[in-house]
Automatic annotation (TrEMBL):
InterPro entries: GH, Glyco_hydro_5, Glycosyl_Hydrolase_39
GO molecular function: hydrolase activity, hydrolyzing O-glycosyl compounds
Domain Glycoside hydrolase family: 26-290
Pfam families: Cellulase (PF00150)
Species lineage: Bacteria, Pseudomonadati, Pseudomonadota, Alphaproteobacteria, Hyphomicrobiales
Keywords assigned: Glycosidase, Hydrolase
Superkingdom of origin: Bacteria
The family this protein is said to belong to: Belongs to the glycosyl hydrolase 5 (cellulase A) family.
Protein's UniProt name: Cellulase family glycosylhydrolase
Amino acid sequence: MAGVTGALAMLLFCSVSWSSPVQKGMNAGDLLFMSPTQLRARFADMQVTGVKWLRVEFDWSRIQPNDQDNYALEQHDRIVNLAEEFDISVLGLIYFCPAWANGGHKPPASPPADPRDFGRFASVLAARYSAAGLHHWEIWNEPNLGISWGPSPSPTEYVALLKAAYVAIKKVDSSATVVSGGLAQPYNTSTTMRAADFLDAIYRNGAKEFLDAVGNHPYGNWEKMDGPNGLRSIMSKYNDQDKDIWVTEYGAPTDGKGSVVVSESAQAALLKDAFDRSTTQSKLGPIFWYNYKDWCPKGKDDPDCYYGLLRFDDSRKLSYLQFMEIH
């Protein structure tokens, strides 16, 4: 077990009494670029580590880059079919927009000019994959950031998109669960909105009727979710507190440059704390760790490369072992 000392492992892996099975989720965007052989090997490894949920990206700008009549979904078909085979539930993330649908703006983060186009796309996905057991959909990613919803967040436009997707998905799969886009944790600027402010604004514009759960990316900012002015209090304000909050991204990088970088032991401790919460906090849905494997070899400055449980060379970080210990 590369990079792990016995004493430190024993310290972090002390026994925990779980009151219920933990809904262990995983982000793994690299699946979209794997060969069939690599995919099967990854799914076998995820099964060993106890992954129960997988967040799969359905990037509209890649799937329908040229027009609304042609779809590139062969790799997604493989992933969804393997998830069904390995008994792993899928949360499908539907996001981004091709140039032909965004009204002439810069792709892919600019939203569609007509939300109905997005709704049609969501409908096709829900109809295609419901038979394989995919009944959970997240609508957009971090819509409170300008880099994800260009040029700047718009709660009213987002609600229109959410409504179009919700109605379209439910029409073809009435049992589906629709999760609002996982929210980032910025301050208010000209191109970003605080998560609580954005959530309040979409509720004010009617989002309550078009979501079954709220998505969030706390990244250590749990107080912004559960504190007195957090997301849960916003949901209570609109009498919607009985719905779950799904943590569709959570993690920490172990290399690169910047204040977010932590040691490998600290990453494992953060992972344990996150999944401990799922047994002690009510109305908390699956938690999806970000990511399964580092995207880069050592030596890169970008910390986004190093959120994995595995290093780029497939050696195991302490967090990989910690993930396995959670039940």
